[in-house]
Amino acid sequence: ASMFYAKEVLHLENLSGGESLTRARDLGSVRSGRSMGFVLLLGGIRLVFLLCVGLGIDTIVSALFQLTVEHPAFSEFTLTCGWLCAGPFVATVRLFDYIDARTRREGWDIQVRFSAIVERAEQERARSLVL
C-alpha cells in the first residue's frame, strides 16, 4: 500500500525510477491504511464494472440478437470489456487521490499558487524590460 502512488509519481513528477519509488513510498507511508482501503475500493469498482458490462453485453446478445452463447470465450470477452471500461474511471479516481495526498501532505495547492505568482512576476519584469 505504501507504493500505491508509484505510477502517478513516475508520470507526473518526472523523476528517475529510484527517486520516484522513494517519493511514492514517502507519500504512501503516512496514508498506508487509507491506501490499502483505496486498493480494496478500486477492486470493488472494477468488480462492479465487470458485472455491469458482462450483464449488459449478455442482455444485448440474448434480447436484441436473440442468441444464446454458452462458449467460455464469450464470458472472457465480456470480462475483458468490463475491465477495459473500468480503466479510465479507475485512472481518474487514482489521479484525484494523488492530488489529494499531495495537497494534504505538502500543501501542494499553495505551492502551485506561489509558482503562478512567481511566473506572473517574471513575465511582468520581462515585459517592463522590453518596453
In brief, what are we looking at here?
It contains five helices and no strands. By secondary structure, it is mainly α.
**Portion of residues within helices:** over 70%
Oligomeric state of shown chains: single chain
- Radius of gyration, in Å, reads 22 Å
Beta-strand content estimate: under 5%
Task: List unreliable stretches of 5+ residues.
Answer: none
Number of strands: 0
Q: How far is the first residue's CA from the last residue's CA?
A: 54 Å
Order of helices and strands: HHHHH
Global morphology: elongated
Question: Helical segment tally?
Answer: 5
User: Structural class of the helices, strands and pairings?
Assistant: mainly alpha
Mean pLDDT: 83
The largest sheet, given as strand count, sense and whether it forms a barrel, is:
none
Task: Describe the 3D structure.
The structure is a single chain. The protein has helices at 6-12, 17-30, 32-64, 72-106, 108-130. It has five helices and no strands. The longest helix has 35 residues, at 72-106. The N and C termini lie far apart (54 Å). The model has no long low-confidence stretch (mean pLDDT 83). Helix 4 packs across helix 5. With 131 residues, the chain is mainly alpha-helical.
